[in-house]
Design a protein that fits this description.
about 160 residues; alpha+beta; 4-stranded antiparallel beta sheet
Length: about 160
C-alpha cells in the first residue's frame, strides 16, 4: 500500500499543525497583545499579529488572496514531496514540516485574519523579526530539503570519482 508508506509523514504533519495551533491559542489567551516577556537577554515572548507573510511581506494584500497564494504553495510543495525518492528521507521530512507550518499559518489567516507571532530575538541595538513555531517549521523544513540536495549532489560526485 502506497498510503501506508506516507502514514508517518501524515502523523508528523498533524502533530506539527496541532502543536503550532495549541501554542498560538495559549499566546492569544494568556499574553496581551504587544506585551513582552523576557526569557533570556536576547529572547522574549512578544504577542504580535502579522497580516502578511514572512517578515510582514505583503501585509497590505487582502487576506483572502494571501490564503489562496499559500494554498497554491502548499499544493506545489505537496507535489514536490510526492515526487521525491523514498531514500530522500530528509527532503520528505522537510517538505512535511514546510507544509505543516504553512497550514498552521493558513489556519490563523482563515480564522483570525492574521497570523499570531510570539518568538522575539533581540539585543539592545538590534531585533530580529517576530515569528512563531509554524515559521520555524518552514525554515527547518527548507534547511532539510537543501541539506538533502547537497548530500545527494555529494554522493553523485563521489560515485563519479570512483569510476
Amino acid at each position: 500500500m502506497r498510503l501506508r508508506r506516507f502514514a508517518p509523514y501524515g502523523a508528523i504533519l498533524l502533530v506539527s499543525v496541532l502543536l503550532d495551533q495549541a501554542i498560538k491559542a495559549l499566546v492569544e489567551a494568556n499574553l496581551p497583545l504587544h506585551e513582552k516577556v523576557d526569557i533570556l537577554p536576547f529572547l522574549a515572548l512578544l504577542h504580535s499579529r502579522n497580516t502578511g507573510v514572512a517578515f510582514s511581506f505583503l501585509s497590505g494584500v487582502d487576506g483572502l488572496w494571501l490564503s489562496f497564494l499559500v494554498l497554491g504553495i502548499i499544493v506545489f510543495i505537496a507535489v514536490l514531496a510526492a515526487r521525491t525518492d523514498a531514500t530522500q528521507l530528509l527532503a520528505r521530512l522537510g517538505f512535511v514540516l514546510i507544509i505543516g507550518g504553512a497550514i498552521g499559518n493558513l489556519i490563523d489567516r482563515a480564522l483570525r485574519g492574521f497570523v499570531v507571532d510570539y518568538v522575539y530575538f533581540h539585543t539592545p541595538g538590534w531585533s530580529f523579526a517576530i515569528f512563531n513555531l509554524a515559521d520555524a517549521f518552514i525554515t527547518i523544513g527548507a534547511a532539510l530539503v537543501i541539506l538533502e540536495e547537497v548530500l545527494h549532489w555529494r554522493r553523485g560526485k563521489k560515485a563519479e570519482e570512483r569510476r
